[in-house]
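User: Can you predict the 3D structure for this chain?
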Amino acid sequence: MRFPRVLLCATTLLAIFAAYTLEAQGQGQTQGQQAPSDVPLFQVTSTLVFLDVTVLDKKGHPVVTGLTKDDFQITEDKKPQRIFSFEAPETHVMGANAGDDNPDGKAPVTIFVLDLLDSNFQDFAYIRYEVQKFLDEQPAELTSPAELMVVGNQSLEMLQGYTRNKADLLYALKHLPAALPFKEMNGMFYWDRFDQSIDALQQIALQNKGVPGRKNIVWVGHGGPNIDLYAPDMTGQFAQDLKEYVHTTTNMLVDARMSLFVIYPGLNVVTRRTSLSEMDADADLGDDDPFEGDINFGVFVNETGGKLFFHRNDIDMEMQRSERLGSEYYTLTYQPQDVGDDGKFRRIRVTLRDRNLRAVTKTGYFAPDKKNPVDPRQQTMINISEAASSTISYDALGVKVVGVVHHPDTRSAQLTVQVKGKNLGWSETGDGRSSASLVVAAVSRSGDGSIVASRMEHISVSSPPQDPTLRAEESTSFPLSIRVPRKTKLVRVVIETEEGGRIGTADLDRKVIDTAPTAPTPQPQLTHHRPAYVRPAASQTP
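Assistant: Here is the predicted structure, written as structure tokens:
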């Protein structure tokens, strides 16, 4: 059985709710009556917390045999919990009938993320070399599916969706175009990099919500920059919004059963000072909010039961260690009592009867907070992800693909996308122009609906001064590139306005791409960065 990535909008971001009970409010109401608007339509009456636990001996080696359910003890907020179910490491292997790209929930899957956004040019070249070295050493068919993603200056792109075919992963890696990490080179983009890095974690969690079993994110790069919440300017609502942002991200990762492994690159890492991320990844952060002081990838590593590797030169060796730690684990579940809706951190601890052994797992989750609505940024990602996976067309923006150029040498396509101007939510700028902010995604889908490649980015379009009525009747065009792996049957473009949340989609059959004009993939050019795409005046050619 295949599990296409169908993305669900959960009523709460509480970690790993495995069972929901629909409970009609105001039972006994006559037909046609409506429950009060302030009464929730869903009430959680049963919860199941999944813990994927790696057990280490004194030397840090995984222990995979000889343990039973009775060897483990679980506490949540210091209260003992009864273990509901238990799975040993030997059960976490691919089923005999699993397909090439089919995560069946038995074996963990791996998402390799190459971090161009936060790595300098030399480090990223080294990352590519070491990741290729790692893949070259793998068998032709991997033991479980993996996918390859890159976080770039402007976008999060899935180069290759889940596959056990090593050749497909290598092809995608070798055809990743070179680019200058201009945001890492320019301090003005510090907050951009922070937002994009955290957004990438959220998007990866959303894309994998419907995939069963454990998922390991192997993030090769430095991860987003550190934010110190004790800094003088981190006060009031701004600091609170940051906390809620990372609390939501934590629960999304935990909810999707994802563990984060971060591998720092560097040709000479021995001379580098220990980073805050490294210290936070290995620290016992106590029972309070783990993001109370610093926000960095090390805290997310700690929270999700992963590992941060820093002191070695061989990235491929650390990738092997990440895969091993992420694949040799026990799965325990329990049902917590009196979760509440106060938004507070729930601390989970797993200990073993043999005190010479150590358990590594997620350290907790944040309870729902009835006082805080869903983050608009997160809701936008949910909307985009649902529209990308849906078979329903969305026509609020009049989206069309008006031009296609096929690049067979890289299995990609350059699309020209057109959007009607009347629903874009234009805002006046200081120079008399108008602009609109859009979230744009493109996905390549296989015949069963699984996503095999994707790209997501935020863009701004600009309009010259003119009558708003005329502007509404015109269309805005912009370029968009997307990978088209061999299993692609359909490409879907999804656009949502950041103001107003209108959504439009356009679908493109694989046959249209294969019969489109072909051209070699353009070589990357060093150009002056423009923060927004400027739409030409009406008299100019788009």
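The first strand starts at residue 21 and ends at 22. The first helix runs from residue 121 to 136.
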